C-alpha cells in the first residue's frame, strides 16, 4: 500500500464513524441518505447500510459522493432470500402491491439482516462510534447491544407527531380510545401536548398498530426506549416546543438536524435524489420555466399511496375545474391501466398549456424549489411537507395514513400554512372502495390555496418566512448546523482528551440537555 493511502486510512480510522441503517422505503431512505451526506460533508465517516436493489437506486448519490471524495461508503447486505410468502425481488416497501406481503417483509425478511450487519461491523477495526437506525428497524437494537456500540434512532415524521405518539403511549390514550363507547367521529385530546390536539379513533398516532402488526409495534417502542438518543428531521424555528417536549418525554438527547433536504445544493444532487430512473428534471423544469411565478399547483401523493381510477379521475377533474395551472405526478402503476392512460391523455389535451401530467418518479425538490410553483397538494408525508415549507410553498393537505393526519394538524393549526381538503379517515392501502375526495373538494381547496385574499396571502407569507428560517437553520451558526456539530463531537474519539467525550458519552450529553428543556 502506498504511504499516502496508508495515512488516508489511519485518518479515516480516527474520524467519528456513523453507521446509518435506513428502512428500505423511499420516504425513510431519502432523508437518511441526506443525513449521511451531511455528516460526511462535515468530516465524519459514514457507512450507509442497504440492499442491492436499493443500492442501485442510490448509485447517483454514491457517484456524487465519490467525486466529492466524501468519507461515505454504501454497504450492500444481500437481501434475505426464500422468505415464506414474499415474492422474490421485493426489497423496498414501494414494490409491495399486495397488503399480505407487508407481514413477511417486516417480520421475516428485515430482521434477517441483523446477522450480516453484525458480522460486517464485527470485522471493523476500530468499531464504529454510533449506529443511527430508523425507528422502524428495531432489529438493529440487538446488534448494537451485542457490539457495545451506542445507537440513536432516526424518526422520520414531524416532531409534533412523534411527541403525540409518545404521549399517547405514556398516558394511555390507546386504552382510553379502546374502551370509549362513542362513534368513529368521537374526539380525544392527545394528553401531555403543549397545544390542544384532537384525534379520532382512526387518526390516533401509532405506526404498525394495525391488527397483526402489534408485535412489531412493541419491538419498535422497546427499541426507542433503549436507544441512546434520537435524530429528527426538523428545525427549532419550526418545532421548538415539540422538540423540547420530546426530549423531556424521552429523557434522551434529541438532535434536530433538518431540513435534511437542504443537503441537496445543486441541480445534479436534486435530480439524482431518490431514484435516478425517474423523469429527467430538465423536461419538468423546462415546462415550469414557461409558467408565471407562483402560478402552478404541484400534485403528488408520495411513494406508497396508490389511487384507483375512480379517485384519479376526481383529482384530474378537480384540477381542470380549478382553472389553475398544475403539475400532477401519477405513478406508473396507476397510469398503467388502459382506461387511465387514455383518460390522462384526454385531460392533457383539454388542459394543454396549463397542465402537465408526469408519469412515474418526479424530481420533487427541483419542482418545489422552482419559482413557478406556488402550491402543493400533498399526502402530508413529513418529507413532502418539510420540503414544501423549506421552499416557502403553502399546501393543500390530503393525509392518507400513519403520521400524516397529525402532520396535517401541525401545518394547518400550528404553522398556518395549509388548507385541508377535508378527509377525516385513513384509506386502506391498494383496495379502498370509498371515494373520500370528489372533484369539488379538489377545486375548492386549490382555489383557496392559489387565490387572492387575506387568508391566502397570510399563508404564503408564513410559508416564505419558515422557508427563510429553514435555510438559516442549516447555515453555520444555525440551530441544525450546530446540533450536527454537537452530534459529531459527542462521538469523537478523545485522542488527547481534548474533546472529553468518548463514544459512550451520550448519557452525559443527555444529562446536560435534559436539564434545560422546558416543562410540558
Ligand atoms: C440543539 O441546539 C439547541 C439550540 O442551539 C440547543 O439548545 C440543544 O441543546 C441542541 N441539541 C443537542 C442535542 O445538542
Write a short abstract of this structure.
It holds the Pfam family Glyco_transf_N. It contains 23 helices and 15 strands.
What keyword list fits this structure?
Rossmann fold, 46% helix, single chain, disordered C terminus, alpha/beta, Glycosyltransferase, 2 domains, 15 strands, binds 2-acetamido-2-deoxy-beta-D-glucopyranose, 520 residues, 7-stranded parallel sheet, 12% strand, Glyco_transf_N, EC 2.4.1.-, UDP_glycos_trans_CS
Descriptive report:
The protein is an alpha/beta fold. It folds into 2 domains: 13-158 and 214-257 and 475-514, Rossmann fold, CATH 3.40.50; 277-473, Rossmann fold, CATH 3.40.50.2000. The chain is built from 23 helices and 15 strands. The chain has helices at 3-14, 26-41, 52-57, 59-67, 102-109, 114-122, 140-147, 159-170, 173-179, 214-226, 236-250, 267-272, 281-289, 309-322, 332-335, 338-350, 364-368, 382-390, 404-414, 439-450, 454-474, 479-490, 506-515, and strands at 17-21, 45-50, 72-76, 130-134, 151-155, 188-189, 198-199, 229-232, 254-256, 296-300, 326-330, 355-359, 373-378, 395-397, 418-420. The strands form 3 sheets. It has a 7-stranded parallel beta sheet, sandwiched between helices. Strands 12-11-10-13-14-15 form a 6-stranded parallel beta sheet, with helices on both faces. The chain has a two-stranded antiparallel ribbon with strand order 6-7. Helix 8 packs parallel to helix 11 (236-250) and helix 14 (309-322) runs parallel beside helix 16 (338-350). The longest helix has 21 residues, at 454-474. The radius of gyration is 23 Å and the shape is globular. Residues 494-520 have low confidence and may be disordered. The structure holds 2-acetamido-2-deoxy-beta-D-glucopyranose. Keywords: Glycosyltransferase, Transferase. Residues 19-260 form the Glycosyltransferase N-terminal domain. InterPro entries: Glyco_transf_N, UDP_glucos_trans, UDP_glycos_trans_CS. It is an enzyme of class 2 (transferase). Its EC number is 2.4.1.-.
Amino acid at each position: 500500500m502506498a504511504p499516502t493511502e496508508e495515512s488516508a486510512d489511519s485518518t479515516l480510522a480516527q474520524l467519528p464513524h456513523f453507521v446509518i441503517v435506513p428502512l428500505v422505503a423511499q420516504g425513510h431512505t431519502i432523508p437518511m441518505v441526506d443525513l449521511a451526506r451531511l455528516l460526511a460533508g462535515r468530516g465524519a465517516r459514514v457507512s450507509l447500510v442497504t440492499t442491492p436493489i436499493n443500492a442501485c437506486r442510490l448509485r447517483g448519490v454514491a457517484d456524487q459522493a465519490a467525486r466529492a471524495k466524501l468519507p461515505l461508503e454504501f454497504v450492500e447486505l444481500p437481501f434475505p432470500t426464500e422468505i415464506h410468502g414474499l415474492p422474490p425481488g421485493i426489497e423496498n416497501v414501494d414494490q409491495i402491491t399486495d397488503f399480505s406481503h407487508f407481514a413477511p417483509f417486516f417480520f421475516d425478511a428485515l430482521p434477517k439482516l441483523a446477522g450480516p450487519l453484525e458480522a460486517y461491523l464485527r470485522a471493523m477495526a476500530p468499531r464504529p462510534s454510533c449506529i443511527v437506525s430508523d425507528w422502524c428497524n428495531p432489529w438493529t437494537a440487538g446488534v448494537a447491544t451485542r457490539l457495545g456500540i451506542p445507537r440513536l434512532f432516526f424518526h422520520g415524521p414531524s416532531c409534533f407527531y412523534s411527541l403525540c405518539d409518545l404521549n399517547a403511549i405514556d398516558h394511555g390514550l390507546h386504552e382510553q380510545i379502546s374502551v370509549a363507547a362513542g362513534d368513529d367521529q368521537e374526539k380525544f385530546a392527545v394528553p401531555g401536548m403543549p397545544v390542544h390536539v384532537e384525534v379520532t379513533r382512526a387518526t390516533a398516532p401509532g405506526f404498525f398498530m394495525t391488527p397483526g402488526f402489534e408485535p412489531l409495534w412493541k419491538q419498535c417502542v422497546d427499541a426507542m426506549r433503549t436507544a441512546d438518543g434520537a435524530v429528527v428531521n426538523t428545525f427549532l424555528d419550526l418545532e421548538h416546543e415539540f422538540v423540547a417536549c420530546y426530549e423531556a418525554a424521552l429523557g434522551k438527547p434529541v438532535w434536530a438536524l433538518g431540513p435534511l433536504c437542504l443537503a441537496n445544493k445543486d441541480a445534479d444532487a436534486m435530480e439524482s435524489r431518490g431514484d435516478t430512473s425517474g423523469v429527467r428534471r430538465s423536461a419538468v423544469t423546462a415546462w415550469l420555466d414557461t409558467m408565471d411565478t407562483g402560478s402552478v399547483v404541484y400534485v403528488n401523493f408520495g411513494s406508497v399511496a396508490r389511487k384507483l381510477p375512480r379517485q384519479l379521475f376526481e383529482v384530474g377533474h378537480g384540477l381542470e375545474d380549478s382553472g389553475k395551472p398544475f403539475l400532477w405526478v401519477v405513478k406508473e402503476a396507476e397510469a398503467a391501466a388502459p382506461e387511465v392512460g387514455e383518460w390522462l391523455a384526454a385531460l392533457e389535451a383539454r388542459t394543454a398549456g396549463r397542465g402537465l401530467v408526469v408519469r412515474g418518479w418526479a424530481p420533487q425538490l427541483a419542482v418545489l424549489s422552482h419559482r413557478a410553483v406556488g402550491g402543493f397538494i400533498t399526502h402530508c408525508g413529513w418529507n413532502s411537507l418539510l420540503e414544501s415549507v423549506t421552499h416557502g410553498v403553502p399546501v393543500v393537505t390530503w393525509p392518507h395514513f400513519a403520521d400524516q393526519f397529525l402532520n396535517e394538524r401541525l401545518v394547518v393549526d400550528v404553522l398556518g400554512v395549509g388548507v385541508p381538503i377535508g378527509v377525516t379517515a385513513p384509506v386502506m392501502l391498494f383496495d379502498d372502495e370509498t371515494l373520500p375526495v370528489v372533484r369539488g373538494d379538489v377545486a375548492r381547496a386549490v382555489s383557496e390555496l392559489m387565490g387572492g385574499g387575506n387568508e391566502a396571502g397570510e399563508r404564503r407569507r408564513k410559508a416564505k418566512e419558515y422557508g427563510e428560517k429553514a435555510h438559516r437553520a442549516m447555515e453555520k451558526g444555525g440551530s441544525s448546523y450546530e446540533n450536527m456539530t454537537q452530534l459529531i463531537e459527542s462521538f469523537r474519539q478523545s485522542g488527547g482528551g481534548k474533546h472529553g467525550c468518548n463514544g459512550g458519552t451520550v448519557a452525559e450529553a443527555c444529562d446536560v440537555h435534559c436539564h434545560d428543556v422546558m416543562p410540558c
